[in-house]
Specification:
Elements lengths: L20 E2 L4 E2 L4 H7 L2 H4 L9 E4 L2 E5 L6 E5 L3 H18 L19 H7 L1 E3 L1 H7 L1 H14 L15 E4 L2 E5 L8 E5 L9 E5 L5 E3 L15 E7 L1 E9 L7 E6 L3 E5 L6 E5 L2 E5 L5 H15 L9
């Protein structure tokens, strides 16, 4: 007896977009990434704590809070290969900078600064401060030994937010203030930063010998992936980099707000102004040119539709 063929069960295609992200693309792993971005919300990408959500920084400071229901218009993730290359370089520079398990830069924040070795790096080859550096060399040596023997290097783990390192909405940009495992989320409105002035790019494939400060984009923005000596008379005039990443395409970007906040640095009357909002980015899956282009295009598109207080 011949059995009639059974009809195949229909294939059910979910209408819901995937919530898994490809660090290499920074977008969903489906074919039509645009549809995925259109369906995403901030709350679906970032862990926002109810009642303590970040607020967009506008020209006048903190304004509108970030809402979990806000639609996402673009998102940039991390490239795993570039991320691993950053960890590899940090293993070489760790004896200077310490900070196991983190790749964060400190960028203008007096509450988060580089180690005492930064002073040695800055002055050891600048006459006459070379003599002062020699006098304090036991202190610098102890810092080297501590980082090498007591606070050993540890790779930063690939973060859970790797697929959404930079989130863009119709109100502005959202990301981590420091590129570390426990950093807080910051948000800056489209009117709160200038794409040409407030987006600082540090490429690692540039000349190893640079002038200071014009040719050295991290003169005021310390980077743990770079070690180099400054040279000069009385003041540093040039820098020769000894260690920096070699992986093509790896760069650090910082988006910081026009608005600044005055914070105390300790001591009587000591204070300094730092950006109220700041986003530290590293190992992005998008080139510096593509990043600036995306930011510029979205700012032009959404700036006029923002409330006056956010422009």
């Amino acid at each position: 007896m011949q059995v009639a063929p059974q009809p195949e069960e229909p294939v059910v295609v979910s209408e819901q977009p995937t919530q898994h992200f490809s660090p290499e693309l920074g977008l969903g792993t489906v074919v039509n990434a645009t549809d995925v971005v259109d369906a995403l919300t901030v709350g679906g990408l970032l862990d926002l704590i109810p009642g303590s959500e970040p607020r967009y920084v506008g020209v006048k400071g903190f304004e509108t809070p970030v809402c979990a229901e806000e639609p996402v218009v673009d998102v940039v993730g991390l490239d795993r290969k570039l991320f691993d290359a950053a960890n590899d370089t940090k293993a070489w520079t760790h004896f200077c900078w310490g900070m196991p398990g983190s790749l964060e830069g400190f960028s203008d924040d007096p509450q988060r600064h580089g180690s005492i070795i930064e002073l040695a790096e800055l002055l050891c080859c600048v006459f006459p401060w070379t003599m002062h550096t020699l006098v304090f060399s036991p202190i610098f040596l102890s810092a080297f030994l501590y980082n090498t023997l007591c606070s050993k290097h540890k790779d930063m783990e690939f973060p859970a937010w790797a697929g959404a390192a930079l989130v863009m909405t119709d109100k502005g940009v959202i990301g981590r203030r420091h590129f570390g495992p426990d950093s807080k989320i910051n948000a800056i409105s489209w009117g709160g930063f200038d794409v040409d002035i407030n987006v600082r790019i540090r490429s690692y494939d540039t000349c190893r010998c640079t002038s200071v400060p014009v040719g050295d984009p991290i003169y005021k923005s310390w980077d743990p992936l770079v070690c180099g000596l400054y040279f000069g008379l009385l003041l540093p005039c040039c820098r020769c980099i000894c260690i920096q990443p070699k992986e093509p395409g790896l760069y650090r970007a910082t988006i910081f707000s026009k608005h600044t906040t005055t914070v105390r640095t300790g001591g009587e009357g000591g204070s300094v102004e730092i950006p109220t909002g700041s986003i530290d980015l590293l190992a992005l899956a998008r080139s510096p040119e593509e990043l600036r282009s995306s930011l510029r295009a979205l700012k032009e598109r959404y700036l006029d539709s923002l409330p006056t207080r956010l422009r």
